Structure formats: structure tokens, C-alpha cells
Known about the structure:
- The chain is about 30% helix and about 20% strand.
- By secondary structure, the chain is an alpha/beta fold.
- The chain folds into two domains: about 50-150 and about 250-295, Periplasmic binding protein-like II (D-Maltodextrin-Binding Protein, domain 2), CATH 3.40.190; about 150-245, Periplasmic binding protein-like II (D-Maltodextrin-Binding Protein, domain 2, 3-Layer(aba) Sandwich), CATH 3.40.190.
- The strands form three sheets. A five-stranded mixed sheet has the order 8-7-9-6-10, sandwiched between helices. A three-stranded parallel sheet has the order 4-1-5, with helices on both faces.
- α3 packs across α9 and α3 runs antiparallel to α10.
- The protein is elongated, with a radius of gyration of 19 Å.
- Belongs to the bacterial solute-binding protein 3 family.
- It comes from Nocardia pseudobrasiliensis.
Amino acid sequence: MSVRSGARGYILRAACVIAGGALALTACTTNTEDNGPKVDKVQVAKVDSIAAKLPADIKQSGKLVVGVNVPYQPNEYKDPGSGKIVGFDVDLMDAVASVLGVSADYKEADFEKIIPSIEAGTFNLGMSSFTDNVERQKTVDFVDYFSAGIQWAQQKGKAIDPNNACGKKVAVQRTTIEDNDEIPAKSKACVEAGKPEITKVPFDEQSAAATALVLGQVDAFSADSPVTAYAIKQNKDKIEAAGPLFESAPYGWPVKKGSPLAAVLQEAVQHLMDSGEYRKICENWGVQDGAISKSVINGAKA
């Protein structure tokens, strides 16, 4: 899955993604996304029985201090007009905070500094499309809220099999799992079977990879499933999913190891799942394929 190599472990994330219309290209250095969608907030009520279980210090402060790294559209990125951090993850965390009767206070940080800041008590939790895995569970606990994997996209009506793309052109973002591992491994298998190799077409930005597909310059692109789902939502007349997502793993919110906050967050997001509000938030951002029905703590087994 996508990003700076090694930054996120099993599922890595893209540094820049589709910014809106098919031809909109976003510069990573601006740390904003142009022409983003206007997504309605799902209004959520406080649940006193869950809110009562918040740790005393958080209850007293009235806020959850959340470490976040942007941009990663559609999960978390800066609205170019207001400068506020918005996205699927943000709407879901805001809903969880509403259940708990507090506000979410988002603090930007380098991705690799978020977990150490949670350990130090600077942040209550992290929210940056973290993959829950057993290695990270040695340091923090994860409240799982989503399932992500690799997802290919193709032009409408032009079927591509991700498991048999020999001789095809496939766009990726540079330094991602797709660039470094997935496509090279699949191309090697093609050659070993006596078939043409896959022509990997790397781009500095995921938005450029998606645009190349929209324009027919490549046969497909491969990226993290939320990124692909959002690109499809933004270009639904031009591109579509190519097969199911694969190599799924949970996204989770990291909290300090052994903290009672984990169980409170789990109960709050489970309430949203049971009420249907979680599903609505996923649908608003076009990422419902990764929606889960049960939140667990430290659900990853690998």
C-alpha cells in the first residue's frame, strides 16, 4: 500500500493524492489539497454512559489531543480555504469526540514522531492512517476502526486483472509498497512464466498516477484502497475498481500502552458503528468498502 517507504509498516500511505477533478495536480510542498470535496458533517449526540468512562484528565480538559500527519486525502488533509484539517479520519474522530462530550484538538507532527509523543503524554492518541501490527503493539495499543489494502483502478469498461497484468502499463507513486514491492514482484512472475513484463510507470504524486489513468496513458494504477476509492469517487465517469482489494490490514488509533482511553474510544466508535453513523461517514468520503462492523483493540495478528 502507499507511501514513503517503511514509514507505516505493513500498509504505507501516499504523500499526495487526487485533489479533485481528473486533471487537478497537487504539490506536496504546499501541504494542502486543492478543489477538495465539500462533505457534510454527520451530527452525533453525546452518550453520557460512555463519556463518563473518560480518563479524568481528558474529561477535565474537555478535549482529546490528537497527533496527525498531513496530507493524505481523503483521510486527513488541509482545506485550502480555511486551513483546517479535514477528511474521513477527521469526521470520524470528531464524531467519536461528540459521543464523549469533548472536542478533538488536532496537532500536526511528523509521522514518525506521533507514537513517541503519545508515549511521552504530549498526545492522547494518533490519527494518521496507522496500520495496527504486532510490532507496533509492543509500544502502543490500537483501537481498530477501518480495513485497508491494495486496490487497483482501471478505465471504465477496460478490464485489468491485478493478478495477470503481464504486458500492461501500471502507474504507481514512487517509494510506495506498490512501487518497491508489489509491481516488481508481479512483473518478475510474468517474466519467469515467459510472459511480457509489467511496465511500471512511477510518479512523484499519486494524483499524477490517477490522471495518467484517466487520460489513458496507462492501463491501471495501484494504491492504498482508501486512496483508490476516493480517486474513483472523484472520477466516477472515467475510472473504476479493477478487482477486489487485497492484502488487507486494520487501521487503528494508537494510544499509550495500557491506557484506559483505548476501551473508551473502542466503545465510542462501536456505538457509531451500531447506530449507522459510522457507515454514513464512510459513504460520505467514498471509502465504505473498508468499513468494519466491530471495533477491537489490537486486532492485528501480524
